Amino acid sequence: MTPDPVLSHSQPPECERAEPAIVVRRTRTTDIDVHTEQLQDWSLHYDQLDCGSFEGSFTDIRWPGMQIFVETTTRRLRQRGHLLPDSFGIGTMLSGEGALCINGIRAGVGTLLTCDTTELDLCTPPNCTVAGLVVDAHTLHEAAESMPDLAPMLRPDMLLGMTPPETALAPWRALLLDTVRLATERPWLLHDPDVQQRLRSNLLIHLLEAMAGAQRSDQIHCAGARKRIVDRACELMLSRPDEPPTLFEVCNRVGASPRKLGYCFQDVLGLSPARYIKAMRLNAARRELARGDNPQLSVYDAAVRWGFWHFGHFSTDYKKQFSELPSQTLDRARLRCRGAGTSRP
Fold first, then answer.
1. In the 3-class helix/strand/coil scheme, how is 251-279 assigned residue by residue?
2. To which CATH superfamily is domain 14-218 assigned?
C-alpha cells in the first residue's frame, strides 16, 4: 500500500517571507519499505523482528537548522543507519509495549536519548511511538554555551541515555507535541518568522533544561560490550545465508557460551539468537520478493537463497511473520512494477 497523500501547505509569497517556510509531511502506510522511504535524508534500514502485519506513520516538520519528528510503528523493529550529517538527534519514547534499546542501551518512557551522527542501532517494541528533534550540531552547541555542565553530553560520537526529572522533561515533551499539532492543524501560523524563532528557542531552552537536570545512564560500558558480541554473532550468522552456521559454531567464534549469547541477544534485540536470525532471513527474502523487478524470480528461488529448504515451512513462517503469503508479496510487487513500466524484459 502506498502512503497516504503528503500534506502540502501553501507557502506565502516570496515578498512576505523573511525566513524559509516550514515544511510539513505526514505519511501512513502498511508497507515497511515504503515507510522507510519517507525518512528523507536519514540513512536507516528497518527489519521486522516479530510477527504480524505492519502499520507505520511518520510526521516530519522541518525548517532550517531543526527537524521535529513523531514516528509510530506497530511491530518490533530493528532500525540501523545514520542521521543527518553534522547533527544531533534527541528523542524520547512516548509509548510502547516494552523498552526500546539504542546501541545496546535500554530505555523506556521518561528516558531522553541523545546521539550525534554516529551509527544508530535502535530496537523498538511493538506499538511504539517515538518523538524528538534533529538539530544542527552548531545550533545546539551555541544554545548550550551558557551551560558548561552540558559540554560532556554534546561531544562528537557520543551516545547518551539520561532520565530527567519528570518536571523538567514534561514541559519539553508537551511543547514538542504542541508544535506538531500547530504545524499540522494551523500551518499558516508557522510562516511568521517571529513564530518560527520563538518555537526554535523555546524547544532548545526546554530541552537543555531537561538535559541539565538529568541522571545519566551507567549502562554504556557494559551495553557496548554486549552489543559487540551481538553484532559479531549477527555478522557470522548472515555471512552464509544459504548455509547458516550452527549456534555452537557462532558461540565458538565470538567466544561466548550459548547462555551468555542468549542473554546478550535478549538485552540488545529482545529475542533469542535463533529467532533473530530466522526473522532476518525472512526479511531478506521479503525484500527480494518485494522488488518485483525480475520476471524470472520465483518464491522458491528467494526461499532457497536465504536458507529455507522446505518450501511449505517457508510459506508458513513467512505468512506468520508478515500476515501474507510470499506469493502475494511477489504478485503485488510485479503489478506495481508493470504499472510503473519498470519490469525488465
1. HHHHCCCHHHHHHHHHHHHCCCHHHHHHH
2. Jelly Rolls (2.60.120.10)
Q: How far apart are CA 295 and CA 337, in angstroms?
A: 10
The correct CATH number of 221-339 out of 3.40.50.720, 2.60.120.10, 3.20.20.70, 1.10.10.60 is 1.10.10.60
What is the residue type of 243?
E
pLDDT digits (tens, 9 = 90+) for 135-190: 888 888 788 777 777 766 676 666 677 788 888 899 999 999 999 999 889 888 88
Q: Which residues contact 275 (CB under 8 A, 6 or more apart)?
A: none
Quote the CA–CA distance of 182 and 191 in Å, as a whole number.
12
CA distance 125 to 49: 9
- What's the predicted TM-score (pTM) here? 0.83
Domain with CATH 2.60.120.10 in the chain: 14-218
